Amino acid sequence: MSLSSRVPRAVPPIGLVLVVLLASCVAATPDRPAPADAPPGGQANASRILTVATTSDAVSFHPYKVTDSASRGYQGLVYAGGLVRRNPHDPSQFEPELAERWEISPDRRTYTFHLRADLRWSDGQPITAEDFRWTYEQARAPENGYPYASNLEPIASYEAPDSRTVVITLKEPLVIGLESADVIQPLPKHVWERLDWNDAERNPEIMAPTVVSGPFKLKEWQRDAFATFVANELYFRGRPKLDGITYQIVGTNQIAWQKLRAGEVDQAGLEPEYFLEAKQLPHLATYEWWPAAARWDYIGYNLRRPLLQDVTVRRALAHALDRQALADRLYYGLAEPSYGPYPPSCWCYTPDLYKYEYDPGRARELLAQAGWQPGPDGRLVRNGQPFRLRLLFGPNSNRVRERIATVAQAELRQLGIEVEIQAYEWAAFLDAIKRPPYDWDLVVLGWNATVEPHWMYQIWSEQAIPALNAGAYVNKRVEALYAQAVREFDLDGRKALYAEIQREITRDAPYIFLTVNKAFAAIHRRVGGIEPTPLGISHNLHEWYIR
Fold this sequence. Notes:
Low-confidence stretches: 2-45
Number of strands: 24
CATH class of the domain at 295-517: Alpha Beta
Distance between the termini: 33 Å
Largest sheet: 6 strands, mixed
Helix content: 10-25%
CATH topology of the domain at 295-517: Dipeptide-binding Protein, domain 3
Strand order of the largest sheet: 14-21-13-20-18-19
Number of helices: 13
């Protein structure tokens, strides 16, 4: 799952003032870069089409209906971003995107954005301020069910006084005021206004958009088979140097890796063990970096279940997993143990929180305190009922998630807890954890977080149940602390508030925090124009080319 790609705009498409670029967030550097005139290795096609093998297909192209990273990836190809974006080389700063400039009123409430004059939809119609205003009105309508509707709450008014001016007034000054104003990724009003926002059968733009603003246009999409995109000649940054991108949906990460290793594709989603091998292959360039927006894995609790509403039980389970072993054996050193909602790389991080270190003895003590005692066969029982849990992960092709699930099953079995594991394909997995009857206890998942720490409040918000807060966690103190922190303009004051947020969440243990992960990629050397930054490598995708 992802908070990047529009959660809000700077939370790509998953914030401002007072954001400090983390010292440990360094730009990636490729291993053994090839000379510019080096011939490509492997058997990759010599056309100007980038080919990507992946195991997860998108769910929808509707930017205001989905939260999964696969859908966000497709949407990022066909829809341009918002008004501003973070500088890829210095994520603490903002730069123009669809707006060429902006002004902030002296009271820090009103943001006036001036759109670029060269903005066009792919059908040639201008992208206007009215497209932004109309999209905002649709996103804020309760009946349209926008998962990130809480992002719109700080806005008092959203106006388009002329075709190139967007004026957004906040209800009050906020530290993250620029990001709070820039929360809309525009849709083409002249196309969408006659279509149903919620019904894919009556709105073909939801599954097959024809009028777009991003660097590429959708050519063809066959679910769970492939998706093909072609260059958008009217993209505001200029026509991409690639003629197109094709995603091949393959059964497993192992198949994806085999295709990349053989030179049959240019890029693939890799698991850590494959990345180590990729470093040794001459036709691949490899990149690794600690991202400015942290990536972390966890096991989440379904707090609708009475058994897991006992915080003592949740703390016991958190002590049962050896995070260092997971980082070493499953991530091959490309991860570090994590114990809370923010990584050490974040300026808001505090080490002053309780860490659920691997301690099976302590786990047994806590389970006993909660009334769970071993029966004659060693399995835990309370009031005649055995301790059983159902753990889900998805997609079933993700070997790391599968191994996390099996490790958790084995560790909890040592405590006398029975764990049933079930794997799903991605769309079915999201449906299982976010829709009634919520028949699960534990879920293996990860978040692509945000540079600005405030936006992570969404995964702890009661209002975000179940879209982002799938486990139905409710903590009014955490929500109040986030509300206070976003109004605190003193950096030290903000740090203190985020420290208390971290302590409160770790005391409550709504997740078993596992690891914070390095980002890494391996790409065929025939692909040029890649520019690693703290925000990754895809920020300039329109400048990639085939040698």
